[in-house]
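Fold Annotation — chain and its backbone

Fields — amino acid sequence, structure tokens

___
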Amino acid sequence: MTQFNRLTRWGLALLAALALTLGTAVTAFAAADTSPDLSRTGSVTVTLTDGDGNPVSGGTLTLYHVATLSLADGSAAYTYTEDFQGCGAELDVTDTALAAELARYAADNDISGTAADVGADGTVTFDGLALGLYLIVQTTPSDNYETINPFLVTVPMDSDGVWDYEVDASPKVGPVTPTEPEEPDEPDTPDEPEEPEEPDEPDNPDEPEEPEEPDTPDEPDEPDNPDEPDNPDEPDEPDEPDTPDEPEEPEEPTLPQTGQLNWPVPVLAVCGLLLFAMGWRLRASGGKETDE
């Protein structure tokens, strides 16, 4: 719902009564004693509060310049800006549905606005604004709170006959209400399956034919008797071995020559015989003496 801070009902009624629908412009006679100063700029401060008046922080508000303000014979007139000229809506500031219609048009046509985050105290201020009509949309809601409805605000605003160039707006923000999940639809009862058809009786297979008797095999031929083997030749009588020759008598061995002369040999032999005879003689003499 559109909210105009400190805008009196009689002021809105007066604006509605004097509104002229000439193309895309609307003209309203100022309720204040003097006309607004078009050389000035203004500001809009939005404060978000819950049902208990506590500030609601977080979220983002976007400001759109919808219409410019001009004077015609001392009366204030609003004309759509270039961005909103094609919206097709009658520019009636008293129409409570106008803000939602303009918000949809801005979203569908990607119209750029001025965005600002809501501070910890729940406030947002847009300053340095040219005079005219503005649309405020909450593009990002505060955590755990519903999105506020779009609303329109005029800069300046008539406040008890005085033009207020620093406009304040305080929309209420409701907490998010959890939605009860819908009961799921009862599933359709499945169709009863059809009874299967009885299968056809299979055809009996043909009786197999009796196999033919196999032919009797021919008697095998008698094998030929093998030829008698030839008698082997008698082996020749072996030749008598030759009688080996008688071995020759070995020669008498000869003493190796030592280089000595042969004449001492007989001398030594004779000496030996003499010594033997003498010994035998002495032995015999010794035996006789013993017997005596």
Notes: Residues 1 and 91 are 16 Å apart (CA to CA). Helices lie at 9-18, 98-108, 264-291.
